[in-house]
Amino acid sequence: MSDGRINNLLYEILIMNQKGAIYDVAELTGYAYRSVHDFCSVLNKNVPTKIIKAAYLVTKDPRLKRELEPEGYELSIKKEGLDYSEDFHKEISDVNIKLSSLLLTFRDALEDKKISKQEKITLKKQWEEVSKELAEVGALIDSKCKF
């Protein structure tokens, strides 16, 4: 992806078409706004997959999904190598902790009876953390089932 194609696509989507989306991508990825802008505007600069994924999550532009999932492929959660414990209680507690944090954030977001774009990004990020913890519980269950 170093031929500048992805840079041009990100520039078109994040800078030209969806003003403000670049800030959301920066926050979601932890990159500075200027760094994300550089990845979009400097041709042949290798763009981290993390930025492409965040841009897709923010904009839902199908062209970005095609960059992440070439024809005939579909991204899925990697199951092997998950960092999970043999302790079911700890894993379930981890799910509860992440879920409680999501619930509190959701309650705070609904105080004014509407969810802002920033609150939505935070909620999605916390949902991904809950999903990761649930995947770890699932992997633990799979590793213990001998049928």
Description:
The chain is mainly alpha-helical and 147 residues long. It has two domains: 5-68; 88-144. Helices cover 67% and strands 0% of the residues. It contains seven helices and no strands. The protein is globular and about 50 Å long. It starts with a helix and ends with a helix. The model has no long low-confidence stretch (mean pLDDT 82).
What is the count of helical runs?
A: 7
Average pLDDT over all residues: 82
> Biggest sheet: strands, sense, closure?
none
Radius of gyration: 18 Å
Name the overall outline: globular
Chain-wise SSE layout:
Elements: H1 5-17, H2 21-29, H3 33-41, H4 49-59, H5 62-68, H6 88-109, H7 117-144
Helix pairs in contact: 1-3, 2-3, 2-4, 4-5, 6-7
Brief overview:
The protein is mostly helical.
Descriptive key words:
147 residues, mainly alpha, 7 helices, 67% helix
